[in-house]
Amino acid sequence: MGLQAEPILARLQPVKQSAIINIFVSAIRFSTSSPSPNMNDLKSSAQEQLEYMLTEDDDAPLLTADDNIKVEVKECVNRLFARFIDSVTAFFSGTTESLSEAGNVQLFQSYLTDLSWACQILSKLEIMREFVEYWSDASEKIVKVLEQGSSTTEVIEIKLRAVEVTSKVLEAIGYGTVILPTAKRLQVLKVWLPFVRVTKPLIDSVTTNCENAMLLKLDGEMWQSLESTFVSIILALPSGDQADILTEWLDNEYMQYPDLTEAFEVWCYRSKVAKRRLSLVGDEHAMTNSF
């Protein structure tokens, strides 16, 4: 083909792994750096390409992450989360007055959107544990701040983004990707279950009546998945804790979502079986003593 073909053939050569790693590291740092709003398009593009680099489709992923890459990703996400928590903490220190202020709305939307995306990267790399623990520990503060906001479309969108992040965290807990102690699982459930229960009707009302409904559109599969996750987490708790949660659900006006009927049915069945088994054990013990 001659000298004319050499430039074309050069472009077809495999890219060096070191070059791929360098691009990935630069992109993950930029994507989690919370750049100014006028760079949102660049940030979104970088985030999309990072996902693509890690995606296995007809071809192998462009990058196979080693331990060094995983450490870099975790550190970048941790810094992003730390900035978000600093903003949350500002509400409790009195330096920030209202979530509804324009600057706060934009800031929280950006942080939560980036954290939701970051969860996908962490999940692909199977390194969700740290983030799940951090989010669980901070959940009570996060919800308190979100509950301070008004019912404007912008604030409801922030709540929606928080639900998106929480759904990924709870999914990791509910399906055993991340193992947390029972007390911590119960605590995170008690924080987010009431919040989601009240927030979903708000989102539904806005998407039905508001001109900006597309901003709040959320995949129906996510709501179904979140509901299933709640059920899974509840059924993995001790029976007494399950009973407390189900009692509160049955007494609540927002019992339609999440629908915990499956958890209720399983709890009833398990309780009945346990009672029968205990009764049999008691009968056997009595017979043994009679001899």
Overview of the molecule:
It comes from Vigna mungo (Black gram). The mean pLDDT is 87. Helix content is 74%, strand content 0%. Helix 3 packs parallel to helix 5 (102-124) and helix 7 packs across helix 9 (220-235). It contains eleven helices and no strands. The chain is globular. The protein has helices at 6-11, 17-31, 40-54, 67-93, 102-124, 129-148, 153-174, 182-209, 220-235, 239-250, 261-290. With 291 residues, the protein is an all-alpha fold.
The beta-strand count equals: 0
N-to-C terminal Cα separation, in Å? 99 Å
The residue-averaged pLDDT reads 87
Strand content: under 5%
How helical, in percent, are the residues? over 70%
Classification by helices and strands: mainly alpha
Annotation field: number of helices: 11
Overall radius of gyration: 24 Å
Low-confidence stretches: none
Report on the biggest sheet. Answer: none
Name the overall outline. globular
- The string of secondary-structure elements, in order, is HHHHHHHHHHH
